[in-house]
């Protein structure tokens, strides 16, 4: 009875953790879809400068996050069903899926840590190229001005840095969003687009990182509980 009582307790505990895991998968899927369709990132990463497309490395991570969220919901359902049925086969499959997911999450985390500065760097280089073309544009065939104006309107900035913003003031009417007051215009001119790009992507990457850490902790507990429950079911069948 002691073994069976402990097994039942672990079963319900694992069911609760799996339900939380399933909910976490749904939340991650929702956050990933929100990041994918966020107006700021979409406006910027859909830009095209001549034949060159804006860097889309950020979207690679988002697509991985969408896949992880969908798989988490499926695995969470599998774990809940396996815990209720006390099936060693389902629990073993669930544990294997968790190990694979955990390994993928660690690999994605390493990739994200290595590329966390590269994403913003690539976007800033793309902006700088468009900015230079916008300053030297002599015909309407060059879309550098349109690209720069989209950056400025989306991020509410003007120029790559404080020094360039003063130069940009000569073309302010063409490149920067119009402001109602002098103070707003002065604030905009001193607002670096490089800094705004860093803030845009660093904030979203930190959000992804926090979600990944929470999910990893839940997965570790679930792997432990699933193995303990599987062993408990095996021992109770012996007795």
UniProtKB/TrEMBL annotation:
Keyword field: Adaptive immunity, Cell membrane, Disulfide bond, Immunity, Lipid-binding, Membrane, Transmembrane, Transmembrane helix
Residue spans crossing the bilayer: 12-35, 56-84, 90-114, 205-229
Keyword Nucleus among UniProt keywords: no
Entry-linked Pfam families: Tetraspanin (PF00335)
Compartment(s) of residence: Basolateral cell membrane; Membrane
Xref: PROSITE patterns: TM4_1
Keyword Mitochondrion: no
Recorded family membership: Belongs to the tetraspanin (TM4SF) family.
The protein's name in its UniProt record: Tetraspanin
Organism: Apteryx mantelli (North Island brown kiwi)
């Amino acid at each position: 009875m002691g073994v069976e009582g402990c097994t039942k307790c672990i079963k319900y505990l694992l069911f609760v953790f799996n339900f939380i895991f399933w909910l976490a998968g749904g939340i991650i899927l929702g956050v990933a879809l929100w990041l994918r369709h966020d107006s700021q990132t979409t406006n910027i990463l859909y830009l095209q400068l001549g034949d060159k497309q804006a860097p889309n490395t950020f979207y690679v991570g988002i697509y991985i996050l969408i896949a992880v969220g969908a798989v988490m919901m499926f695995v969470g359902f599998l774990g809940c069903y396996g815990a209720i049925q006390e099936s060693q086969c389902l629990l073993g499959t669930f544990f294997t899926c968790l190990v694979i997911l955990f390994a993928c999450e660690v690999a994605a985390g390493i990739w994200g840590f290595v590329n966390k500065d590269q994403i913003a760097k690539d976007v800033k280089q793309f902006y700088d190229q468009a900015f230079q073309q916008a300053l030297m544009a002599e015909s309407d065939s060059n879309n550098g001005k349109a690209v720069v104006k989209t950056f400025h309107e989306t991020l509410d900035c003007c120029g790559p840095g404080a020094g360039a913003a003063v130069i940009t003031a000569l073309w302010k009417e063409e490149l920067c969003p119009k402001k109602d007051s002098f103070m707003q215009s002065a604030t905009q001119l001193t607002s670096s687009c490089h800094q705004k790009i860093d803030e845009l992507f660093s904030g979203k990457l930190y959000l992804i990182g926090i979600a990944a850490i929470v999910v990893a902790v839940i997965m570790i507990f679930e792997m432990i509980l699933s193995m303990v429950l599987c062993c408990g079911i095996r021992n109770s069948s012996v007795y």
